[in-house]
Amino acid sequence: MGTASTDAARRRRKPKKKKRCTTKKVRSHGHVRTKKVCKPVKKKTVAKKVTPKLPAATLPTSATPPMTAPVAGPPAVPPQDPPPAPDPLVYHGTFGAREAERLLWRAGFGPRPGDVAALSALGLDAAVTSLTRPSGNATLNGPAPNADGSPLAPEDQYGHDHLFWLDRMVRSDQQLVERLALIFHDWFGVSTDAVGQVGLMLDHIDLYRRLCLGSFRDLLLEVTRDPAMLLFLNGVNSDKNSPNENFGREVMELFTLGADRGAYTEDDVRQAARALTGWRADYVNNVGWTNFRYDPSSHDSGLKTIFGHVGNFDWRDVIDLCLNNPYHRSFFVLKLWSYFVPTRPDAATQAALEKIYVDSDWSIRAVLEAILRHPALHTGAPLVKPPVVYSAGLLRARSRGVTSMSLLWWADGAGQRLFYPPNVSGWNDNAWLDTSTLYARWRLVYDVVEDDAPANNTYSSTETPAAAVAAALAYWGDPPLRDDSRQVLLTAATAAVPANATGSSASNKRGQRQTALRHLIAASPDLQAC
Amino acid sequence: MKNCCNDFTRSQLLHHATARAGAGLPSIEMGMPTPAGSGMTRRSMLLGGAGMFLTVYGADKLGLDAFETGIAEAATGPAQAVIVTIFLAGGIDGMSVLAPVADPGYQTMRTSTKLDATTTDPLTGYDALRWHKKAAGLKALHDASKVTIFPAISYDHPNQSHFTSRHFYEVGALDPAGSTGWLGRWLDIVGDVNNPIQGLSLGGQLSPMLASTKVAVSAVDSPSGYDFPSPGVWDSAVSTAMTASGFDHLGDAPAGDATVTQARQAHRNAALLRGQLNTTLPASPTTYPPNNGLARDLQGLAQLLDAGLPIRACSLQGNGGFDTHSNEISGFGDDLESNCLAIQAFQAHLEARGLADRVMTFVWSEFGRRPEENDSLGTDHGAAGVGFLVGTKASGQIIGEFPALDATGLDDNGNVRATSDFRSVYCSLLESWLNTDAAMVIPGADQLARYAVVKP
Known about the structure:
The complex is a heterodimer. By secondary structure, chain A is mainly alpha-helical. Among the domains of chain A are: about 160-380, no CATH class; about 395-530, no CATH class. Chain A is built from 22 helices and 4 strands. In chain A, the strands form 2 sheets. A two-stranded antiparallel sheet of chain A has the order 1-2. Chain A has a two-stranded antiparallel ribbon with strand order 3-4. In chain A, α10 (about 245-255) crosses α11 (about 265-275), α13 (about 330-340) crosses α14 and α17 (about 385-395) packs parallel to α19 (about 435-450). The longest helix of chain A has 21 residues, at about 505-525. Chain A is globular and about 85 Å long. The two termini of chain A are about 40 Å apart. Chain B is an alpha/beta fold. In chain B, about 30% of the residues lie in helices and about 15% in strands. Chain B has 11 helices and 13 strands. Chain B has helices at about 5-20, 65-75, 105-110, 135-145, 160-170, 180-190, 235-245, 260-275, 295-305, 330-350, 420-430, and strands at about 40-45, 50-55, 80-85, 100, 120, 130, 145-155, 200, 215-220, 315, 360-365, 385-390, 420. In chain B, α4 packs across α10 and α9 runs parallel beside α10 (about 330-350). The longest helix of chain B has 24 residues, at about 330-350. Chain B is globular. Chains A and B meet through α18, α19, α21 and α22 of A and α1, α7 and α8 of B.
């Protein structure tokens, strides 16, 4: 991959990066040479109106340890475990099986057998850090994948890209890393449809795996010059003579600041587009785009004015200007939060998260750990499982591996084909469930329960309806089906097999009832969310 | 897929890729044509009136409502002629469908795969060939003068790549760069921009034959409605109870929170929709062979036609894979039979519902196989193969003779010479069946012969 290796060195020298005070620099009016990054000095023009969001709370004075800032208010719940003082922004209730299961769905792809007990035994703090602080390389546990018997060839065989990543979701012992890779795939929305080169897409996702728990600044810098992104948002078609605004716009609207908040102007977009020029690549027949590089002669080195700051900015400066834009911190924490909790955080929570984010030099992990410990995650409403999360979770629940192209077809039918987000804003995470996508989810379950369908004359000929429901729930590891749904299943199970059935008919009817119960449970509306 | 070559597997995949995506295709070897239809946009829609999940290709600027409206409007016009194509993948061995048992060359070149009097039945009107007994379904239709036969169909300079030869048939020209299907081009002329099911593939993948540039076309996984079956639950009392008492009620009550309530509402909608759509398609009056994918698709197609949906062209894939490089005798007969029985049942269905005079079905494969057997008890890629047109309006004739298996009838590679050209079949169908000037659809149509494919 021809990434501009010369940039690596420059990037290394990133200073410790104190939020605000960065390189407070001179606005060079004439000097072409000096490029300066200006951090948000409070008195800049632009639409500076402070929105209701961050009420003071932010503006950390110094780099105090982030995480749980001691807040006076004593919580109603009595302090539990050892470490943190009672903090209303940390969940203090029981961290039992239900809580552990939910955490496994939110921060991963659902439990495998035994995972719930193991995680809940850790207690909340250790459970969270077991997810957020993986060490070394991920290990893939479980059966190796195949596509209807063929080994996976993600770069060469149609659809194998989806199966290849799905397999990692199913088998990786670093579940949160894969989940964050999916989240950032959604966040940045890069699609093979536009990039056209699967190899670049695989590298692109690897980037998220590498950087998803570090600094958002590092991640955004790497995304900005990632070949897939350079193709996706026209970075390589943008030079000083005709700057393309695509990335300049989306980096503000979708990646860091948000639209219609007064965070930037159209002119900022145009000026940023100039600053982002300089990337080039070559198209080679039968190879595709290659030799991605930064070419200073393509870069517009003139002065630009962005967010009211003036300088001969380049692509790094654009990123720093966005990150230091006062609207970024709230955008970031709210967007990240939305992937884990379906309801908005209250003002105190948002302020605390912003403080953590800024104090930690844009640490994704620091914010994430606070979210994963937050009471809203553990006691609030369930979150709809995105289609591939649901798909991977079905396999994990049964310790299965990826074995069939049908996993691609039905994930697609359910609305989420990996590597193909519908557009740069990613998937619509509020519209996963409708009559069409539910059908595809039904088919995903179909393929799993089909393999375990009891053979004729092998199933109990005496099992009671209640026992049948219990067995079917146990098949899935006793997921949190609600009481009224259990009652529906019991009614159906009772109606399905006459009590006086005998012989092989009794066995076969019960075997089929069991398959149908398993199917209904996993496909039930209750379990589309957790 | 049994005993098939890598090229065949790859060709299947690439076509799959075309159908599913239109972009992000796997890398293609040098010299291989890009499948027709690459680059077509697609989107899914639920066709409420028919209970189908259509994947609509092209016409991406239109709203989904426009499609439903377009379909409804198109359905109000007069019933029109329909063309169905069935692809037998892999290159079916024509000489094992219609066997030249009396040809001395057949006896010497086909030592392990040859048929004889006991495994064949006479072909009415043509003594040189005999039907494989497992083709009895087609034989019966032919005896009733409902099948036009092409015993040696191909084209000039036949290509032995599965992929390329198939591509020629699909685009209706000997053009590796062709990007539209011959039926897609026809629909571009006669179709309605808003009616995607005018060009329909069943089984979930769009056939490149239907790749159009102006009008919408579509693919659907199953025409048999919007149903929620469970695997292996064949006892109707069990499945009925689990659906009526279970599935239908899991969405009934609001849950304690908004998220699950929303999920339950969606589930409830699905259950209601299932009930509504369950009764939409007219019942099938005939029995189809069970566990037969082509039969399932054809039955669905007949039901859709019976329901009055404005389908003009439908492209399907037959059962099995016919790339019989080794051990040809195993499986071939069963695959042949399953296809023939499906077609026979389809024809009976159409006739029972008064639809038969509107529908013509073309059965094709990318090539035939080499007369001389290989050392693996199989046959390699050949040239001319067998093709059929099925329908009450089919002429019932045999178009072109089957060449002698000697120097006069075989080409320099030892393959069967063509005595009919698939492009001529297309031209003839366009003009005498679909009432369209073939020159508007098939390149070089004025240089191609016309055949008596339909009854006068």
